[in-house]
Design goal:
Layout lengths: L2 E8 L11 E6 L8 H11 L7 H4 E2 L2 E2 L3 E5 L2 E2 L15 E6 L5
Parallel strand pairs: 1-7
Antiparallel strand pairs: 1-2, 3-4, 5-6, 5-7
């Protein structure tokens, strides 16, 4: 079984995924059993283009501070963060809030 998700990289974060902002993916997990933590691991292995870019996205085994994470347009802090249980059709949005200058 697979779960269909939409994964978005916004705010310049698309540079870690070959400048593709939106990814429609099927991940090899059962609906109702996979968590956001597993989705993030899958994203690191399958969407992030270069291994060196993983450190732009991940710090201390979670999404780096300065990246806003939304699950279906809701801040993931309101959705149990890494423990959120994925559902078919979920939209995971990662937006960088850090800008150079």
């Amino acid at each position: 079984m697979t779960i269909s998700l939409k994964v978005e990289f916004l705010g310049g974060l698309d540079v870690i995924s070959k400048k593709v902002r939106e990814h429609k993916v099927k991940i090899p997990f059962e609906e109702g059993e996979a968590t956001m933590k597993e989705a993030i691991e899958w994203i690191c292995q399958n969407i992030i283009a270069e291994e060196k870019d993983i450190e732009v996205f991940i710090e201390d085994e979670t999404v780096r501070p300065g990246i806003l994470v939304l699950i279906n347009d809701t801040d993931w802090e309101l959705e149990d963060k890494e423990d959120y249980v994925l559902q078919n059709g979920d939209v995971l949005t990662f937006t960088s809030t850090l800008h150079g200058g």
